[in-house]
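Extended Data, panel c. Modelled sequence:
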Amino acid sequence: MKKKDIKILLVDDEQDILEIVGYNLAQEGYQIITAVNGKEAVQKAKKELPHLIIMDVMMPEMDGMEACEHIRKIPELSNVIVTFLTARSEDYSQVAGFEAGADDYIAKPIKPKVLVSKVKALLRRLKEEDAKSDVLTVGNIEVNREEYKIIQDGKEIVLPRKEFELFYLLASKPGKVFKREEILDKVWGNEVVVGGRTIDVHIRKLREKIGDDLFKTIKGVGYKIEI
């Protein structure tokens, strides 16, 4: 996918942030769309179907966390990459962000060049996904990477992007014990800095959604991470 075809939705109630970040990303050749609050972000995301959403947390009308939760419930936006760009850098805020469905969490202030590099790292996943096999079959489970769908006995299970990628990784090698570093590298990318707690949050949410029986099917006798 060429840069000119990639849409990035910037969401922030501070106009200078929209202008600075938007300018630097536009210089890279991306299509830039902006919104000034979470409510507008959800509306524009539905209309524009962006590939990446960069969103502040603290905003009027609807904050970033709530907006992210709304976006994750929209089927046609299930594949969108969402990252928070916020001054809230506390651990609990980051955990809340991932709970809401974010793929990454970037703390302000950040230099424009560093942000551009992080955006490139996030968008690199689009290319990596194009190169991967579209369908993976494990027993009665079919994992469709192109449509981000999991089918079991004809029943569809829809997961947010990060949970899907985590599921795909585990299903690609049933029974394997994964190291945390390997999961972070394969699912989040080695240029994106996240903590080990992020894995725990996504594993818990994944088990809640797909159930222990299905989880045990892909992991043989259960899930395990090597510390």
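DSSP finds eight helices and eleven strands in the chain. This feature is highlighted in the accompanying rendering.
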